[in-house]
Design brief:
about 35% helix, alpha/beta, 10 strands
């Protein structure tokens, strides 16, 4: 998620645990003591935590970002035979199976603890470590619906109801990570997803190029737009202090992973960085820095998250192997459908 919401002030935190120090470089080793991590463009971590990691392990950290999760996947595959990074963070569950099939990763060897519940089912050798999670959901402007006296929608099907004509803005699945998650959710949850999308577009749904445009330009609550329903995240209402809420019947799970490149120049440094990402101190920053939920159950959420950032107990289930097999074809079919509808 883009780090565009108002953030809380973060106090200086120390790096917890000693496991990362066990992988510190040998002072007599000629190998350069640096580690390079490819991330999506929403990665953010307090500087004091990075400094603590560098001081404890002896590695200097460089991050590079080609764009969102989809761009990260594409860039890694392009570099398959000659990687320029040691590790990656930000591969989501809609890209995980595709990356695993490329056989580019080596086991991370990190102790996942309570994060184990978020592992990729097919990843039996531990190539991808879950770092954070959330849900992509339709958000609604509570004040708008109350003022209009209109019952709020509850399901994906409701978005095609004439009662909500011209009220919903989503994002392009070919350019937007939440847009892709929403497309996959409609494929998983409807009998005929193309008919569903015809009905959705006929009902006046707008397709924005990206999340920021949809949320800050088109959404009535956060922008000056005309759409009181917007595709966003289950965490988004935590920044709106009750003015918005998630429609839980539309939510689908999103998990972000980190991995170590098999041909990395510094795989030990990448493994140490993954253990840093799984430290309680880093996990505590996820809600305020990246608006994602920690994968460690023992990490407490900020008060406003506990109050407003509700997760669906039964999100729309997605077969991630099926996504990997069909994603390109689905996107091609969606593009043809959308262009035909727009012409």
């Amino acid at each position: 998620m883009k780090k565009s919401f108002p953030l809380l002030t973060i106090a200086a935190l120390g790096l917890a645990g000693c496991s990362v120090a066990d992988q510190a470089p040998d002072a007599n080793d000629d190998t350069e003591a640096s580690v390079t991590i490819m991330t999506h463009d929403s990665f953010n971590v307090p500087e004091e935590l990075v400094t603590a990691f560098e001081e404890e392990t002896g590695y200097s950290v460089t991050t590079t970002s080609p764009g969102d999760a989809g761009a990260v996947l594409n860039q890694l595959i392009l570099q398959k035979d000659n990687p320029t990074v040691d590790g990656v963070y930000g591969i989501d569950n809609y890209s995980a199976e595709t990356l695993l099939a490329e056989d580019m990763l080596t086991p991370h060897d990190a102790d996942l603890g309570s994060a184990d519940q978020f592992t990729v089912a097919s990843d039996t050798e531990g190539h991808l470590a879950p770092i954070d999670h959330g849900q992509v959901c339709v958000n609604m402007d509570n004040e708008w619906f109350e003022a209009e006296g209109l019952a709020t929608p509850e399901t994906l099907e409701d978005l095609t109801d004439p009662a909500y004509e011209g009220l919903f803005v989503t994002t392009d699945p070919t350019t937007s990570s939440p847009g892709l998650a929403f497309l996959v959710a409609t494929i998983a949850a409807t009998d005929d997803w193309q008919t569903y999308w015809h009905d959705l577009l006929d009902n006046g749904a707008k397709v924005a190029g990206g999340w920021s445009d949809a949320y800050y330009s088109d959404f009535t609550s956060a922008g000056d737009g005309d759409y009181p329903l917007v595709l966003s995240y289950s965490s988004s209402p935590s920044a709106e202090e009750g003015r918005t809420s998630s429609i839980l019947g539309t939510c689908t799970q999103q998990v972000e992973y980190a991995g170590v490149l098999a041909d990395a120049a510094n795989p030990d440094g990448a493994k140490a960085f993954i253990e840093f990402l799984l430290s309680s101190d880093f996990q505590e920053t996820l809600p305020t820095e990246m608006f994602m939920y920690p994968v460690l159950e023992e990490v407490e959420l900020p008060e406003e998250w506990s109050q407003y950032a509700e997760l669906a107990e039964d999100p729309i289930a997605v077969d991630e192997a099926e996504v990997a097999e069909n994603r390109d074809a689905w996107l091609d079919d969606w593009t043809a459908l959308y262009e035909n509808h727009s012409s």
